[in-house]
């Protein structure tokens, strides 16, 4: 696979194992990945300006993924977002569906599904 070199894929998940695995997976597809332990960490970083796609856990302590997306939207920042979750309840699907996210992928993450959605997010489909 060719190197994409189209900015950054930001990964936000409070689970360090998921962060590491998802980052490795995204890099294996040829994209640059940077991982964050929380939405607040992403918001405080210098990575936002370069972020072309956000892969974000829905359920996290403090600010959850949906709140992070809302916060970015209120700041006028619109990043194509792929939610990931281990707990896909009907209520969560409803909240995600009502928001600006592209999709919600259930954990364990299917590599092909993630690569397809990131490609769509980056307009490479």
Secondary-structure blueprint:
Layout: E1 8-12, H1 16-28, E2 32-36, H2 39-43, E3 51-57, H3 65-74, E4 81-85, H4 90-98, E5 103-106, H5 111-121
Parallel strand pairs: 1-2, 1-3, 3-4, 4-5
Structural summary, described in words:
- The chain has a single domain, classed as Rossmann fold, CATH 3.40.50.
- The protein contains five helices and five strands.
- It is globular, with a radius of gyration of 13 Å.
- It has a five-stranded parallel beta sheet, sandwiched between helices.
- By secondary structure, it is of the alpha/beta class.
- Helix 1 (16-28) links the parallel strand 1 and strand 2.
CATH class: Alpha Beta
Structural class, please? alpha/beta
- CATH architecture descriptor name: 3-Layer(aba) Sandwich
Number of helices: 5
Number of domains: 1
Low-confidence blocks of residues: none
Biggest sheet, in brief? 5 strands, parallel
The count of β-strands is: 5
What is the helix fraction of residues, given as a range? 25-40%
Within CATH, the superfamily carries the name Response regulator
- CATH fold assignment: Rossmann fold
Kindly, what is the distance between the CA atoms of the first and last residues, rounded to a whole number of angstroms?
A: 15 Å
What is the alpha-carbon Rg in Å?
13 Å
**What characteristic shape results from the CA principal axes?**
globular
- Mean pLDDT score, rounded? 92
Proportion of residues in β-strands: 15-25%
Strand order of the largest sheet: 2-1-3-4-5
The H-and-E topology, N to C, reads as: EHEHEHEHEH
